[in-house]
Amino acid sequence: MGDDKKRAKKRCISRDEEGVTNILSAILLVGLFTIVIVTVQSVYVPVWMTDREAGHMEVVKNELAQIESLMGLQALNRDKTTLSSPLTMGGSELGIFLSSRSNGNLRVDPADLTVKIASPQIRVRTMDGADYGAIYPGTAQPLNLGQEEVELDISAVRYFVLNVSEADFSNSEWGRVNMSVRTASDELIGYAWVTVYGYQSSTQVWVSVFDANGVKLFDQPDINYLPPNNKIYNHRMNMLDPRYRFVELLNIAEAPYRMNIVLTKNGGTITADYAITYDYVDPDSGGTVIIGGGGKVFENFDKSYTAGALVYNANNLYFVDQIYTHMMSGVVLTQPGEGSTYVVEPAIEINTVGNRTVVSMLMLNVTQLGGHSTLSSADLATVQTRYISGGGIEGQAKTLTFILKTDDAPSLMRYIDFKMDRAGLEKETHYITQLIGNELTVSIFGKGTADIYDIDLTFTYAAIGCVIGSGGMI
Length: 474
Description:
- This protein is an alpha+beta fold and 474 residues long.
- The protein folds into 2 domains: 53-121 and 298-468, no CATH class; 133-294.
- It is built from 3 helices and 25 strands.
- It has a 15-stranded mixed beta sheet that branches.
- The protein is elongated and about 150 Å long.
- The mean pLDDT is 85.
């Protein structure tokens, strides 16, 4: 009996000890779990969320790059179709762990950039819709009787205007401008005649275009001058007018090709000149540059353009705050205390072809059309864009200065210096840059002599309407 009691007592104590052990184990497990959760929450969650927010910044950069690319295409094509693009305003949470989503602010800044273009002397072909290519007093190439003018290494003709400046013929007299299109090896592709005929009662200008086999593509009078004003003065003809069909010869010519132009007559009096502007293929480098005499010369030229910007400001909780600014035609990243840099390069190209310096720029003016001008959100936003209007300058200068005012001027200077260096232009010799506050001055002298138009400029400006989120697009 005594043994039974002792064994029963031991079993009771054993059960009590097991219960205590289970409770202690549970407490330890809860404590361990709490420690793990607290450790994960305080140590790992910030790391994971930092990575997520950094990944979100990469998404925003890529989405802004896509928006910039679409706006650039709308500007260059002058496409007024409304396009919608997504922009992920905030990051994502971790789910079971305590975490908060980052968010962002998107706005249209109406006055982010000013660009002033200046030159002591610039020959402008086109400017803000005005075409000076066919109006070029004093800059046309005169045709001397019987002396052939040759335009070499043509890739594409942009302007070609023939001017019969004076013609006076009696009956049966004529004068003719012969324009032939030839391959680089001088094989005939086709030719055109602009002939002024003298008749007893009138003077007539006749246009004839032939293929290489002499088959007539076009053969019609352009105009009749009747008495008492049958003497011709300054009769201009745009030889790229499709109705003459001369352009068909240019279209089938394989670059580089050439054009021979000569003036002949059988009597009477005739003088003529022409202006031609074309893409010239440099035989050494293979690069292309625009050359030609067309354009209007402006002295002490000074013209300014302003542009708004699309700005995204990230409100991160773990990763460093970032600001992405669509400026000019690129995207600039700004981080507090670390300055700014381009993450999407602007459409600024600087090249050299021989001794010529070729500069092209695209400037996009982002402007609000409707809806919100600013939006704060952690969700997916929609950005609608549409081409509104455009302009710009195309021409040639002897020296050229850009004055750019923007908060991102330091990053713009670094980028331009990089482009100049890559084009083989030496600082202080071929160009200078000067940064004072938020104003960057870039002066380009080029590689040629100071008295020739050896700097080719193509500056394209476009206003792009923008709607953030919901709202009516005009």
